[in-house]
Amino acid sequence: MIRAYKFLMRPTVGQTQALGEMLRDHCALYNGALQERRDAYRHVSKTSIKYGMQSAQLKEIRAFDPERQGRWSFSSQQATLRRLDKAFAAFFRRVKSGDTPGYPRFRGVNRFDTVDFPKDGDGCRWDSTPHDRTTRVRFQGVGHVKVNQHRPVVGKVRTVGVKREGKRWYVILTAEQAEPEPLSPTGSVIGIDMGIANFLADSNSEFVPNPRHGRQAAAKLESAQQALSRFPRVRRDRRTKNHQKAVQRVGDLHRKVRRQRLDHAHKTALDLVRAHDLIAHEDLRIRNMVKAPAPKPDPDRPGAFLPNGAAAKAGLNKSINDAGWGVFLTILTSKAESAGREVIAVDPRNTSRTCPLCGNVAAENRPSQDIFHCVSCGHRAHADTVGAINVLRAGLVRRDARQG
Q1: Which of 10, 48, 262, 390 is the most buried (most CB within 10 A)?
Q2: CA 162 to CA 3: how far, in whole Å?
Q3: What pLDDT shows up at residue 329?
Q4: Mind listing the pLDDT tens digit for each residue in 97-110?
Q5: pLDDT band for position 393 (50/70/90)?
Q6: Which segments of 35-180 are extended strands (E)?
Q7: How distant, in Å, are the alpha carbons of 136, 137, 169, 248, 288 from that of 8?
Q8: What CA–CA distance (Å, rounded) separates 174 from 157?
Q9: Are 5 and 149 in contact (CB under 8 A)?
Q10: What one-character DSSP code corresponds to residue 365?
Q11: C-alpha distance from residue 67 to each of 20, 75, 77, 117, 310 (Å)
Q12: For the chain, which residues make up each domain, given as ranges?
């Protein structure tokens, strides 16, 4: 199996400058290749240029501009061209499927933050020492950069990447390793119901509180964004240091919230995987859940619209995104696979409206957000707990059908 590792780098001042120049030059290569594809399609009888044609031009590009393109790894430049090729492949796939196409766009220097090296030893070298917190990674044109290796890398390193996040630099490794041994069976199965008031409720009537990291940082973020809005819009090379600090402040706050969500998702998923052999959850379509409501034209007043609840839906969408359900479910599935646990996604329809005792299904069974009161048998419980119980039952049915 392939596992990824992410470590903080501690480059010197000179290495930081060299890393920034590497991103800048790869960004220029990406934008130049994109411009070539656009021009060829528009002006040369709709000619399509593929990756192989652009990769064959790299030697000439490096010889023509040795100061900016010739100093970097050839394979990393090929990876940048493959990145553009994948963007076009995704664009054509969306066109064929009828989705919003999203034509590949030019990247600004501040929005191009990653350079990949497809093979360890080709333009880069990971010098790993087990349990050594000051290991180094070497990049062509940069040198040996110190790395804060907070855990050992298991397996053979395959690819290496550089990523910039604000003022921090990270190295991202992928290592090929043997399949891990599954955890010992516990004999426990559980269903979980994702929510907003509580992050999740399980079928054992337990709850995980919703930390609401975004809401906690909202005041600071609002203040930082207001400070940023006071600066006039100017070209990047004419921005003042105070403007750059304001941009950095907003980015730092967003990155902190993202790290907090990831930390909470990892810890919650790890507790579930360690304690249960089977975990059933709702198969949520989060992208559809956070769509804005369609406008309602007023038939009596042309050009006017009726209230459609857009303001309330915007608040709900913000809470859903703040909870980070999609990230959590992705992490849960990955950890369960490594631990030999089973994760089953079930249809979420009517899970919170079905009585777990008599099976009655009715919208009246849930008179409020938290209360479940069956109109048929009178059963009372927390609505999220009822949903988790029904999710678990549906998951067990799917598992038995699969095994049978």
Answers
A1: 390
A2: 16
A3: 95
A4: 988 889 999 999 88
A5: very high
A6: 114-117, 124-127, 135-139, 143-148, 156-165, 168-176
A7: 11, 11, 6, 18, 36
A8: 6
A9: no
A10: G
A11: 14, 17, 15, 20, 53
A12: 12-149, 189-403
